[in-house]
């Protein structure tokens, strides 16, 4: 599993600051410290041991030189000088840190060299011996029997046994140290995974909340610090949820107030202007009937004037109808939502006869008045946009009821939104505001294949 230490990737981190990966730091730093520690310990062991070996072999060498000076057999004693020298060489060779041998005048060994030293040196690998071995010292003392020189007693320092001892310690200490460092690195990596897993859970919860899912909560945690963090995030989500509910209530209240105001204006127009326009029409019809009875030179002009007044009165009635319809669609004809949509489609067919509009909806669909008004306005604005902006030739309106929503969808074969949007357009913004206030979801026009699709999902009330 990979862990990313970068929290909230698209959060507001200034672009100049490149965040560091916690996981990487927690991995690299202990590894570097471990390697440095091992290297330092190894260097200290080697340096100290090297100095100690040098001192010990030098001291043993000086002692051996003094011993040879004292015990070397005298030249005229008539004794077995060579034998005694060989005995002395064997004794020195048996000492630690030294080797001794007797050679003839041509440098060929007369006594076999002790084998113990060779065996112990084998125990340390060559590179280690090379690192530890101090400068070798040697001395040759003549073995003479007057007047002849019989051979030479050769003494030299031999640090092999000491090196082997240091190697024994070294090969125990270093693997132990390396294992300890590896364990520490493993622990710190495990710890970082633990932290990052928790941070990731909180990050996921925050991401979901940012996407609008305010029911999502950060998981509880047994570590006090993360529990506090999760509690803080959850408290923030609670606060946002209550703010959102309050906001919705306010928007709904605003919408209701504005719709109530519009409804009142529409009712006043409808109730005051309607009867008066009706009376005006009736009076005009009577006046035209009476004018037809009148004969004389001005009767034809009177009839023309009355007909013109009738046409204007009709235009005023249509304008009033349109205004009322715009202010409060549900008032018009007191029909159901599907019926009103049918009327709307018929009106559009008159305005734009080249556009084929299909309406497919269940005639029994009904909702609260604000919801129905919002759906009606959505369909009207979307139709208008499809014709005006998309230059659509075919529009399909579908309205169906699901378990908890009324889904209204418009599909048109127009050229679709340009992507730049409209700076001064109010249509989509109005739909969005009304949808938000009523808890509905609005998908603005988008291309799906060769069609432009717009959708509103209104919850049942
Ligand atoms: N069906 C559609 N086909 C193509 N473009 C669309 C469609 N619906 C909306 N648009 C694009 O979206 C923009 C915004 O639409 P909106 O209804 O908000 O504003 P408007 O129609 O330009 O102005 P207003 O509705 O205030 O008269 C439009 O200008 C248009 O570019
Ligand atoms: Mg518009």
Tell me the layout of helices and strands.
Layout (H helix, E strand, L loop, with lengths): L21 H50 L9 H14 L3 E6 L12 H8 L2 H7 L5 E8 L2 E10 L2 H51 L13 H70 L5 H29 L9 H15 L4 E6 L7 H20 L5 E8 L3 E8 L14 H11 L3 E8 L2 E9 L2
Parallel strand pairs: 4-5
Antiparallel strand pairs: 1-3, 2-3, 5-6, 6-8, 7-8
Helix pairs in contact: 1-5, 3-5, 5-6, 6-7, 6-10, 8-9, 9-10
Bound molecules: adenosine-5'-triphosphate and magnesium ion (MG).
The site of magnesium ion has 5 residues, from helix 9.
Can you offer a commentary on this structure?
The two termini are 46 Å apart. The chain is of the alpha+beta class and 461 residues long. The chain has 10 helices and 8 strands. Among the domains are: 163 residues, no CATH class; 125 residues, Histidine kinase-like ATPase, C-terminal domain (Heat Shock Protein 90, 2-Layer Sandwich), CATH 3.30.565.10. The longest helix has 70 residues. The radius of gyration is 53 Å and the shape is rod-shaped. Helix 1 runs antiparallel to helix 5 and helix 9 runs antiparallel to helix 10. The protein is 60% helix and 14% strand. The strands form 2 sheets. It has a 5-stranded mixed sheet with strand order 4-5-6-8-7. A 3-stranded antiparallel sheet has the order 1-3-2. The structure holds adenosine-5'-triphosphate and magnesium ion. Adenosine-5'-triphosphate binds next to helix 9 and helix 10.
